[in-house]
Design brief:
single chain, 174 residues, alpha+beta, Alpha-Beta Plaits, 2 domains, five-stranded antiparallel β-sheet, 7 helices, elongated
């Protein structure tokens, strides 16, 4: 690889890192061609971009970035696959599923919205993260719940509850 090719590769990796808030580093060493093909196919189906990268080029791209990737440097050993996704939990779920089925790939590290996770022990937590859409749905559900309860309580016995509430308020004011 010539110096200009290396420079272009570093710039491409840097663009990927700076343009995305979610990426995982996975260890794919020792995977057969069949398992690697399956990994690539499943990643494509889940909307994950998968690239096997040279550790030295990835580290140089990380060092050039304005983001702080220094906690991830220790995980840049062996074969490294860069998995880029829109949602923080999708690669985690995939690594967990394939790890049970095939034993590989394993999690080296993850970067999600400026938070870094180094080591396989974080895989369970990463796989159970909720996506932005799931969190918004939970918040909307929580906000709607009290309003539904109040409306249901007020509607539930005809107008008797409203009349009783008005009477109680009048008695307190007096």
């Amino acid at each position: 690889m010539t110096r200009s090719e290396k420079s272009q590769a570093i710039e491409a990796i840097l663009e990927t890192l700076d343009g995305n808030n979610v990426f995982y580093l996975a260890d794919t060493s020792g995977m057969s061609a069949e398992k690697t093909t399956k990994l690539r196919r499943v990643c494509f189906e889940k909307g994950i971009k998968l690239n096997v990268v040279k550790n030295t080029l990835l580290r140089q791209a990380m060092e050039r970035s304005e983001k702080d990737f220094s906690p991830l440097f220790e995980s840049l050993k062996g074969t490294t696959a860069l998995m880029v996704a829109e949602t923080g939990n999708v690669p985690g779920k995939l690594l967990k599923q394939l790890g049970k089925e095939m034993g590989k790939p394993t999690l080296k590290a993850a970067y999600i919205d400026a938070a870094t996770f180094v080591g396989e022990e974080h895989l369970e937590a990463l796989a159970s993260l909720k996506s932005r859409e799931e969190l918004l749905g939970d918040v909307i559900g929580l906000l709607q719940s009290p309003a539904k309860n109040v409306i249901g309580a007020l509607q539930g016995g005809g107008g008797q509850k409203i009349a009783g509430l008005v009477k109680a308020l009048q008695e307190r004011a007096a």
